[in-house]
Amino acid sequence: MLLAPLFSTDDLRRWRSCERRFWLARHRLQRGEPVAAHEPPADLDVALRASFPHADTVAPPQTPSQWVQAMRHTLDCLDSDEHLPEGWAILGACLTSEDRVQVRIDVLGAAEGGGLRLYKVRHATVGDDSDIDTVALWTHVAARCGFAVQGAGLLLVNTDFVYPGHGCYAGLFREVDLRPVLGARPVAHWLDSMRHCERGAEPAATPGPHCHQGEGCEFAASCKACQPPPAPGHAVDSLDILGREAAAHWRTIGASSVHDLRVEQLESPRLQRAVRAVQQGAPVIEPAVAAIARGWPHPRHCLRFDTIGMAVPVWSGTRPYQTLPFQWSCASETADGQWTEQHFLADGQGSDPRRAFAQTLLRALGTEGAVLAYNAGFERNRIRELAQWFDDLAPALDALQPRIVDLFQIAREHFYHPVMAGSWSFRSVARAVAPELDMDVRLDPALGERANPTAQSVYALMQKPGQRLPVRHACREALQAHGQRETVVLRRLLDVMERAGD
């Protein structure tokens, strides 16, 4: 390769976080090897067209020849002698500057009084420093191409927006003007430094939180200086399982782990249980909890909700990032010890599922029996919101509230297992009572989802417009299996409580 590949927005992002990451990516490109690039949200064009109804869209280029076509498309749009209507813009405008930088600009539109305005779109409520860097680079490239940039900023999600339905997204985004801060970004100097870095020897790494933010650095595995990702919890016998203040206190008097403590030194019964469990290498459960658990009336319903908050709402009457339930999973036990499983999962491409969610939930829970949930405030709030939305269902939904039992509160006051490592999250409790269960949502990455997906991301994949039926079917199976595993954890926790003292 006689000429190095042109710089891109991804190059600047890498260089600003770590020069070694930038250097390695550039040398990989020079060898003709692929390097991961940032992909804009798939539904970007749909939401933006409400604000820019007369927009032209430039297809994302993947090859040098496609870049040439994309730039020609962009320049043809900008060179038109026709009067530009209100709401005109170019979505995904592609430009290349004479200092060898090529960028794809989210929104390039006409500014009042002439010139252009450009925006970076974020499916978020706030931006960050990397967004300012990106807009500064885009402004630099547009100016080097001879365009008068009169405005530059971010388009962020407006959480006050209420989706009226029918694809009407006007008002979804709010504008944030970045012109006052762009002058502090010396883009030309950055580009010179990037060229010097690229031509030099491999730089030392600059480790920090950026090593694992987002999808993480693609070179982290081979970086000796890279800090390990944050551990999901503390070591089993770490003083930190007692809390930050308690851990600091015991370290000041010479303790290095929980094994250095005597149970009677601790005033809190909860911490005493934790220390006893760690020191004996086995769970501790107070016998008194058995009477509490056996007193919960039948039928007893182990209940879990899954929810999603979408940047671009798809159901009328909802707001961006509003917490919306899409799945409930319930295991019910009768007085004779028989268990039944019931589930609800909203159609990934149907209408607003909340009414069906509420109606099926009421049928499953009936009017009697305890409703057992973990961190039950979450389920309580979702039920309360459903009652506010559906007046005719409100009495029955409100009647569920007194029946709800928070297993988190009960377990916290009566149970501890060493594997919990000081954490009372649902996953930590799952490791304690159902260690053989894999609590991750499992979906074949070949279906278009990242590794280790969440229930929310799988549901979003399932409801993607035009999604193929095999993908939707696989998503549905994965989500239902996930919900069933969660109710198994609640059943196991209930069993541990009932058998306390046996």
From TrEMBL:
This is DUF2779 domain-containing protein. Pfam families: DUF2779. Residues 302-425 form the DUF2779 domain. It comes from Hydrogenophaga luteola. InterPro entries: DUF2779.
